[in-house]
TrEMBL record:
Residues 428-563 form the Thiamine pyrophosphate enzyme TPP-binding domain. The gene is oxc. It comes from Bifidobacterium pseudocatenulatum. The lineage of its organism: Bacteria, Bacillati, Actinomycetota, Actinomycetes, Bifidobacteriales. This is Oxalyl-CoA decarboxylase. It comes from the Bacteria. GO terms for biological process: fatty acid alpha-oxidation; oxalate catabolic process.
Amino acid sequence: MTEEHADETMVASMRADAERQGADDRKVTDAPHYLARVLMANGIRNMYGVVGIPVTDFARIAQGMGMRFVGMRHEEDAVNAAAADGFITGRPAVTLTVSAPGFLNGLPALLEATVNGYPVIMIGGSSTRHVVDLEEGEYEGLDQMNYAKQFCKASLRIDRIEDIPLAVARAMHIASSGRPGAVYIDFPDDTVAQTLSQSEADRLMWTATDPAPAMVPARKSIDAALALLRQAERPLMVIGKGAAIARAEEEIREFVKKTDIPFQPMSMAKGVVPDTDPHSTASCRSIALRNADVVLLVGARLNWMLSFGQGKTWNEHVKFIQIDINPEEIENTRSIDVPIVGDIRSAMTLLNGSLEEYPFKADETWLNMLKEASAKNVAKFETREQSDQLPMSHFNALGAIKKVYNKHHEDLILTNEGANSLDDCRNIIDMLEPRHRLDCGTWGVMGCGTGYAIGAALSTGKKVLYIGGDSAFGFDGMEVEVACRYQLPITFVVLNNGGIYRGDFENLGADGDPSPLTLTYNAHYEKVLEAFGGKGYYASTPEEVERMVGEAVESGKPSFVHVQIAQYAGKESGNIGALNPKPVVGALVDSEVTMYDYATGARM
Ligand code: ADP
Ligand code: MG
């Protein structure tokens, strides 16, 4: 059944119910039933949460009425699962939390979803309003709506059952339109207990109309962009995750084909145009950015990841064209020569359409220069990926996983977190499909990957491959129980070097404790999943990695491959070590810390 079909059926059946009832107002609905009906009528299918007072019945009722409810182990992961669902499907999913602590647990991920631009609606059960407001000491009493305000696009409260359709419609519009993001809806126990006559509920019923409307940019901004591109000697398109959110892959691929423009994919935009496309500059990023003279930003912010559009990363005279749906994003770090404010699909359609009149082709010398630079780097990477060095590094372990990924790419979504496990995986594994890679995103956070994996598996029915470091996995590892309980086709792969960044740092003091960066090197992470009935594997050679990850993915069942890599594999802070201020004087500088080269294992 399609979503549209389901919505129509739902509204029609409610109307029919109303007719059957006629004036019989003795039949009532209650807030949990009504809320579930309204969410479903708005096309929301999936709810991820942790139940408890006062929303346990709401979850049971929603499930009974046909919503998919996934009982998670932590609210942060529940929000991440809903955010992944929203990112992939383009329609918000719901997170459900209990009052105070459950609600608070969800807030970091709520903010992350907003920062990243993923549509999600978090519904938080809360305690009796008037008791909370007079600070009488209510059970889990907290003014949640006001706390949530700084963590999402909008924080709303339903005080009256008859406002449920309005609250959901508001949430749909705010979460989905413009730059998508999170909406919080407070659902206090006094509202949970309210009832309404069925006929009145049906009469008040409505659903959000076009919550994610196209926003067509001004014609003159398109003309100005093409005029600037035609003057460029070394044009470059930077594709950001806004393009994935906009579902603009077809239009962007057409533009690349027609203009030969080289492109640099941001991490979560990988696959909008396949990484294997010869126009990709993924393997020669710094050369592409440093030399480009006109840059077309397509749904990518000039934030820290792009050095704020300033400094040595970029050509001194570079000019920017920026396509973004959010006008406030324009010129937030530097001047922009041509802003195009609108949605990417509309913008790219207009650009493509104008190419006949104003043809533009990227220069061949520029393209060849980039291709040569790419080829050199690819060769370097391949040597490391194919190395049979033991114990393994991130490179040869990921090189083995890549072989499995390439066989399944269309049907396999990747979620990826860690420091080196993130950076090296992004560089090594090519993405061919849009919205098939979910990672630490705009903030580079850890603890998102297992929640994303669950949301990705549930919302698509596709297989999911989680790749994380031992540190990243530890934040939200308990969600493997959810994967087993719901029999989701997720393979978890943890690259274990026994530490944060790497496992060989020494304690600089005399207390004999492990270093602050140390985790358990002689671990068996696969046993965490085995405890819940999933299948575990332990791999310590590239051959075992390929065979075991291959078998696990093929099985389509919850599975876990522990990949043991060298304790000295990895760099502190991964590829963003420059962001980590180093003490100029003091213990770290004066002390002897044994360091090994991650590639060769040699003592440095
Ligand atoms: P990345 O991290 O991949 O560089 P960012 O998250 O920094 O990407 O930037 C994505 C940008 O895309 C945001 O500024 C957001 O407003 C914008 N965006 C999101 N959806 C759309 C859309 N449908 N059309 C245009 N811009 C969009
Ligand atoms: Mg580690």
